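Quick illustration, no need to memorize.
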Amino acid sequence: MIDAALRRVIDRPLDRAGGFLSRCGVSANAMTVAGFAAGMLALPALAVQAYGAALALILLNRLSDGLDGAIARRRGATDFGGYLDIVLDFIFYAGIALGFALADPAANALAACFLIFSFMGTGSSFLAYAVMAAKRGRTSTERGTKSLYYLGGLTEGAETIALFVAICLWPGWFPVLAYGFGALCWLTTATRILAARRDFTP
């Protein structure tokens, strides 16, 4: 919901950092994979309830996610780079929910399942719209220069990061926050389906 506005704030410092990393020989794909590795290390940290360490790794993942795009803009974006970025992002999102299920199965497992189920709705509605948009030659730069069409909604990247920060800071509230965010994900999915009906119906 706030990604477009946030881009106007963070793009300039990310581009400067991306330019420096590019000059140092760091590729966008290498940054994507390194960020994914950091994100996956958050999973065992969550499993042993080391929430501070998990939060640091999650934030490192998200920083890397911003930097890989900045590097790609300097060195030239590729279709594979865009593909790798989105695939690893969705795996990371589901992995954080799994980490909380492992931390306290009795309290968190059902809520984690619901959150992953809800991520399936937002992820599939997002990607399916992007496929149809590409087929029709639709483009958007509202959320920065991207490899595919980014359709907005209530629960975008910034809101998901806010959720992850909140559940690491207050892990006892994970079930409530997961159910609440999951419900917002389904509202996002519904609005995206309605947008697709509006945009793709002859």
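The two ends are 28 Å apart (CA to CA).
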